């Protein structure tokens, strides 16, 4: 590996840095974009069951908010009704929508950086190719003779940087698309869960208004 880095020349170092950052972001997102941490499948049914006859206690709502990202959205609706029993449906929807925006922003964290690396890596590889071509042309003496060592180094710089740029860009783009699809799926799950919870919570708001 060290010999390859030496043959690729100094333009390889930005690509190595991009590869390290991309790998770290991919591992971080693979860990945090799990259903158990974002939207547990049974969480909504559990919330509906707990609040079937009465609103849960504050400590239960706080634990729900810490459970997952979806838990935070559902907890926002519960907290809104607890804080204002006479809350209207538009106000409740607005409270949950605001929490949902925060949740989506949280799930999208670092995705723009990963997408930037996927787009920039081929350009950095192309830059290394240009540097290699400059060295190739520089190996040609005015008399027509050439320096074989400098010529070989220029070719190595051009080819290795092109290859490294593609090696970094292709997996980064694939994971970026994969994570983007996961975020959209989680966003849809949270929206559907909020739609189910709003009419359920409005039963308590109506009772509060009646009394």
TrEMBL record:
Belongs to the exbB/tolQ family. InterPro entries: ExbB/TolQ_transport, MotA_ExbB_proton_chnl. It comes from the Bacteria. It is a multi-pass membrane protein. Keywords: Cell membrane, Cell projection, Cilium, Flagellum, Membrane, Protein transport, Transmembrane, Transmembrane helix, Transport. This is Flagellar motor protein MotA. The chain crosses the membrane at residues 12-31, 110-137, 157-179. It holds the Pfam family MotA_ExbB. The keyword Transmembrane applies. The lineage of its organism: Bacteria, Pseudomonadati, Pseudomonadota, Betaproteobacteria, Burkholderiales. It comes from Rubrivivax gelatinosus (Rhodocyclus gelatinosus).
């Amino acid at each position: 590996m060290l010999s390859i880095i030496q043959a690729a020349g100094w333009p390889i170092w930005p690509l190595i840095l991009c590869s390290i950052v991309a790998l770290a972001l991919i591992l971080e997102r693979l860990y945090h974009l799990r259903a158990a941490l974002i939207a547990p499948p049974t969480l909504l049914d559990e919330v509906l069951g707990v609040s079937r006859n009465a609103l849960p206690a504050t400590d239960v709502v706080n634990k729900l908010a810490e459970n997952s990202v979806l838990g935070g959205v559902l907890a926002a609706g519960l907290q809104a009704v607890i804080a204002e029993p006479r809350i209207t449906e538009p106000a409740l929807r607005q409270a949950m929508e605001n929490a949902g925006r925060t949740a989506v922003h949280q799930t999208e964290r670092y995705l723009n950086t990963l997408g930037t690396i996927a787009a920039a890596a081929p350009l950095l590889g192309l830059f290394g190719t240009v540097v290699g071509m400059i060295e190739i042309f520089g190996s040609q003496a005015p008399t027509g003779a050439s320096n074989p060592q400098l010529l070989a180094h220029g070719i190595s710089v051009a080819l290795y940087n092109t290859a490294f740029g593609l090696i970094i860009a292709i997996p980064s783009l694939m994971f970026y698309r994969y994570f983007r699809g996961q975020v959209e799926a989680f966003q849809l799950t949270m929206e559907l869960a909020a739609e189910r919870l709003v009419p359920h919570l409005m039963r308590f708001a109506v009772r509060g208004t009646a009394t």
